[in-house]
Structure formats: C-alpha cells, structure tokens
C-alpha cells in the first residue's frame, strides 16, 4: 500500500469548489429571503 503523509495533499481545487459553493448558497438564500419579503408585503 502507498505511504501517505498527513497534510501533504494539494487541496486548492477542493477549496476553490467549496468557496464557489458557499458563494452560490449565500446568494441563493439572499434572493429567496428577498422574494419571501416581497410576497409578504404585496400578496398579504
């Protein structure tokens, strides 16, 4: 079995993907909350 040294893996791609995912989730939540507020104001 190959030897693996803890902490030696290059994780730049994973970090970039995670940052993009968190950005997408944050923007989505903001848009959804804005839609809910507008619905509460104008549909109620």
Automatic annotation (TrEMBL):
<keyword id="KW-0472">Membrane</keyword>
<dbReference type="Pfam" id="PF07835">
    <property type="entry name" value="COX4_pro_2"/>
</dbReference>
<dbReference type="InterPro" id="IPR036596">
    <property type="entry name" value="Cyt-C_aa3_sf"/>
</dbReference>
<dbReference type="InterPro" id="IPR012422">
    <property type="entry name" value="Cyt_c_oxidase_su4_bac-aa3"/>
</dbReference>
<protein>
    <submittedName>
        <fullName>Aa3 type cytochrome c oxidase subunit IV</fullName>
    </submittedName>
</protein>
<feature type="transmembrane region" description="Helical">
    <location>
        <begin position="20"/>
        <end position="43"/>
    </location>
</feature>
<keyword id="KW-0812">Transmembrane</keyword>
<keyword id="KW-1133">Transmembrane helix</keyword>
<feature type="domain" description="Cytochrome c oxidase subunit IV bacterial aa3 type">
    <location>
        <begin position="4"/>
        <end position="42"/>
    </location>
</feature>
């Amino acid at each position: 079995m190959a030897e693996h040294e803890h902490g030696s893996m290059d994780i730049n791609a994973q970090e970039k993907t995670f940052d993009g995912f968190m950005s997408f989730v944050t923007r989505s939540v903001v848009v959804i909350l804005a839609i809910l507020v507008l619905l509460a104001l104008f549909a109620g």
